[in-house]
Structure formats: structure tokens, C-alpha cells
Specification:
The protein is of the alpha/beta class. The chain is 35% helix and 16% strand. The protein contains 13 helices and 12 strands. Strand 2 (96-101), helix 4 (106-117) and strand 3 (121-126) form a beta-alpha-beta unit.
């Protein structure tokens, strides 16, 4: 049999690390929903499990799959993306200096700003993708964490992970990459030098819009890792068994889902790239995207389904478009099998810097002709605002 590291990612994921139940032969991993674990006849722990607030077999199995896909030594699952990112900052030394993008997931940004306002951390921002601006905000010997998101939620700016890692490490800082829009089937931040790969596993990893989860992945030599694990145990934010079981189910089809959504998104972007009602399409897969070459280097199996479209016409037209679509679902999330549309400024707020005429799209796995036709009819329905 081939060695583990010579087997393709797709195979590891599809077989859930070749799970076969020893008792029944079931090829589907079981869900072991329990809050506590009996000790053996010698009063020793069985495989280290004591209480599900710390770890459980189903959650560990899901973590092992993700660690394999991420080329990580270990992954830690949380009950949401936010609880995962909060654990990282909570694990930092007191009064740590954090540098983060000004364009990123808006709730994460709001939370960082709240922590800075309470003097828990000090915080500086830089424009997504601007490495010179990032370098200018780093304080060697004082900066503890650099938090980038690539592609960046909103305008899908792309940051060169390898260069960001060099800047971080030269200053003695940790680089965390939010790679939610680029799951490990296409982008592996640790391979490019990042210290922590972070995902809202609710999104592409989960892919079915039926649970929330977050995950952190790292190498063994990360000094902060044990502290992050302790924070998860104290807060009780581990992903429960049922959600972990759903995640294992989802990871088994991650590669085929992501391939389909990437193909759909590219076709959709190409169709509307020169449309009379479109001012601009922000999608890393397009050749005219300013970060395309970096994205091509980092995202090796597709550019995903996330894009933003700037609509021509009155400011209100974009919001009306979100009301007029019939197949796109007006909902907040991304990475699911269904296509979603969101008037992002309504969600992120007037201080977000997001233009009124921007629509964020999460392209799903439906037939591409149906998605294109739906958007075309929405343009026709809102022609009065052109």
C-alpha cells in the first residue's frame, strides 16, 4: 500500500482517512455523542479522553482529516469561526500588538476593534494585499500577531502569504491566515510559511449550510498552540460530536464541490465581465484582477465561488437586484452548495467602506445556465434604476 503522504488529498478526504469500523465494517464513521468517558480497569484514561469539553473521538477524527488536508501537524475544531479566531487572540500575551487588514470579515474586524478599545490589545490596520503598508505597521519585537485574509472578504484582494510570512517572522510575530474562501483543496497557508491556518469551517469545508464550525491548523513547533488548546477547554468552544460528524460527511465531497463551484464562478464572471450593467467584477480568477498572478500561485485547484459585482446605475439598484433574483438566495454566508446573494453594505454597515453598488455572490453548484439567466432577468427587472 502507498505511504500516507503519497496518497492524493481527494482520496484521504473521500475515505475519511480510510475509515472502516472494526466491529461492523461500516465505511461511514460513527458519531460518538457522549459528555464523559469511562476509565479502564486500571483506572487509566482510554486514548486520553476524559470529558468532551476537551476532546472527543468524532471531533478528533474530523481534526485529523483537516490536518492531513492542510499539511499540518494538528488541527483544533471550534463551534464557530469566531470562537476559533477569538481563541488565538485570547492566547496572546497581555497587551499584544496585532496587525490586521482593514478589509476582512467584518465581525472579526469589529471584535478586534472592540478589544483594542478595551486596551486588551493594541491594533493597527493595513489595506488588504498591500505588503508595503503591512511592513510599515509592523513593530519588530513588539508585534505579536499578523492576521491576513486571502482572498479578502468583500473585495477579494489577494495577499502573498509567503512574503507576509517573511515580514512576520523577521519581526518575531506569528502569521495567521484566514483562508476561509480558499479551502485546503486549493490553498494551504502553512505550505507558504504561515504559522496558523484559520477557516470558518461553516463555509466551504461544511458546504451544506447546516452547522457552524471553525478550525485552526498549525505545526508542532508553534509555541502558542498549547495555550490555544487551553483557551478552547476553558471556554468550552470545542465542536460537538454531531456537528463534527456532519463536517466529516462534508469533507468527503469537498474537492468535487469546490471544483464545481469554481467552474461555475469562472463561467459566471466571464459572462458578465463586459456586461453593460456591470461596472466591475472582483474575482481573483479573472486575468484583470490585480491579485490574479498571486492567486494562481497560491490557489492551485480553482479560485472558488466568491466574487463581488459592482452594479451600474443608481445606488439603490444593487439592493433591488438582491430582491429581484429568483434562484440566488438572499442570505448571509458563503461556500454552500446553494448560490447566495448579499447586499454587503446593508450587512456590514455604513462605516465598512463597502460601496452601495456592491453585491457579494457565493456561487454554488447549480447549473450555470440557470444562474446566469437569473441574474439577467434581475437586470431587466431593475432597468428602471439603470
Amino acid at each position: 500500500m502507498k505511504q500516507k503522504n503519497s496518497i492524493a488529498q481527494e482520496t484521504h478526504a473521500a475515505q475519511a482517512l480510510r475509515h472502516i469500523d472494526k466491529t461492523t465494517g461500516s465505511v461511514v464513521p460513527p458519531m460518538l455523542a457522549t459528555s464523559t468517558f469511562a476509565r479502564d480497569e486500571n483506572y487509566d484514561l482510554r486514548e486520553g479522553y476524559i470529558y468532551s469539553r476537551y476532546a472527543g473521538p468524532t471531533t478528533t477524527h474530523a481534526e485529523d482529516i483537516i490536518a492531513t488536508l492542510e499539511n499540518a501537524d494538528e488541527s483544533l475544531l471550534f463551534n464557530s469561526g469566531m470562537s476559533a479566531s477569538v481563541a488565538v487572540v485570547e492566547a496572546l500575551p497581555s497587551q499584544s500588538h496585532v496587525v490586521a487588514q482593514s478589509m476582512m470579515y467584518h465581525v472579526g474586524l469589529q471584535w478586534l476593534e472592540r478589544q483594542a478599545a478595551r486596551s486588551v490589545i493594541s491594533l493597527d490596520h493595513f489595506p488588504a494585499g498591500d505588503l508595503n503598508a503591512l511592513a510599515a505597521q509592523i513593530k519588530p519585537g513588539k508585534t505579536n500577531l499578523i492576521w491576513i485574509e486571502t482572498p479578502a472578504n468583500g473585495d477579494w484582494s489577494v495577499t502573498d502569504i509567503a512574503i507576509a510570512a517573511e515580514l512576520a517572522h523577521a519581526a518575531g510575530a506569528i502569521l495567521m491566515v484566514d483562508s476561509t474562501a480558499a479551502p485546503p483543496c486549493t490553498q494551504q497557508p502553512l505550505t507558504h510559511g504561515a504559522d496558523i491556518s484559520f477557516h470558518s469551517a461553516t463555509k466551504y469545508m461544511g458546504g451544506h449550510s447546516d452547522f457552524t464550525a471553525g478550525v485552526l491548523s498549525a505545526r508542532k513547533d508553534l509555541k502558542l498552540w498549547d495555550e490555544i488548546r487551553s483557551v478552547r477547554g476553558f471556554q468550552g468552544t470545542i465542536l460537538p460530536a454531531f456537528e463534527a460528524w456532519l463536517l466529516i460527511r462534508s469533507l468527503r465531497t469537498l474537492h468535487v464541490r469546490f471544483a464545481q463551484t469554481s467552474n461555475n464562478a469562472m463561467a459566471f464572471a466571464n459572462h458578465f465581465a463586459n456586461h453593460k450593467d456591470v461596472q466591475k467584477i472582483l474575482y481573483p480568477g479573472l486575468l484583470n484582477h490585480p491579485g490574479h498572478e498571486i492567486a494562481k500561485k497560491q490557489m492551485q485547484n480553482g479560485f472558488g465561488g466568491m466574487m463581488s459585482i459592482l452594479i451600474n446605475g443608481a445606488d439603490i439598484r444593487a439592493l433591488e437586484m438582491a430582491k429581484q433574483v429568483e434562484l440566488f438566495i438572499p442570505a448571509t454566508s458563503l461556500g454552500g452548495v446553494e448560490s447566495l446573494i448579499e447586499h454587503r453594505r446593508t450587512v456590514a454597515g455604513p462605516d465598512s467602506g463597502i460601496p452601495e453598488n456592491l453585491l457579494r455572490l457565493s456561487i454554488g453548484i447549480e447549473h450555470i445556465d440557470d444562474l446566469i439567466a437569473d441574474f439577467e432577468q434581475a437586470f431587466m427587472a431593475t432597468a428602471g434604476h439603470a
